[in-house]
Amino acid sequence: MEQFGSKSNKEVFRLLKQSINAIKGDLWNLNDAPGRRGSWPELVQDDNPRQALTVIRETISVYNYQNMPKVLKRFKMVNDGIRTELSRASKAYKDQKGKDIDLADCWDRFFKSRKNQMVATGHVFVNEAIEQMHTRWTQDPGASVEWNDRARAVRDALTELESHVGEIYMDDLELQDLN
């Protein structure tokens, strides 16, 4: 909702680290792998795991950010504004056509569905990414001590990230009565 680049929505505008903001946009667009297009398989195979671990960490961070009380307050403010305008449009339609429609209800159902899909997308990506990285960075008896030490450090980082998967959620917004 509140992606980098807003020029007219100053009171709710916030800048995030560009990479986190890009991941947030990808998640809301329901892209399978957030971050640079098509780069996830290369990140998994890269001999330097830092960027892949960062994408996983930043994906979880998007949900941490969106669940912060101040951010939820802004989220609700934007959502209430959309719902209010749709309610006005519904009333204007009824005045002109004599038919009842509830555009705010349509928006509420759409937004709840999209939010739930966005959360599911994040869960699937993080869980699959952790699994892929575990597979890539398994102990290798034929590899150097240095490589196995790095693999152990990566697996430790993955275990830590795994402990944060439960932070991938968004509660439903409390909706104001528009009548």
What is the C-alpha radius of gyration, as a whole number of Å? 21 Å
Give the biggest beta sheet: none
The DSSP helix count reads 6
Order of helices and strands: HHHHHH
Number of domains: 1
Task: Supply database-style keywords.
179 residues, mainly alpha, 64% helix, elongated, disordered N terminus
Report what the structure shows.
There is one protein chain. The chain has 179 residues and is mainly α. The chain has one domain (10-167). It is 64% helix and 0% strand. The protein is built from six helices and no strands. It has helices spanning 18-28, 40-45, 50-66, 69-97, 103-136, 145-162. Helix 3 runs parallel beside helix 6, helix 4 packs antiparallel against helix 5 and helix 5 (103-136) packs antiparallel against helix 6 (145-162). Mean pLDDT is 89; it is low at 1-13.
Question: Could you outline the blueprint of secondary structure elements for this entry?
Answer:
Elements: H1 18-28, H2 40-45, H3 50-66, H4 69-97, H5 103-136, H6 145-162
Helix pairs in contact: 1-3, 3-5, 3-6, 4-5, 5-6
Brief synopsis:
It contains six helices and no strands.
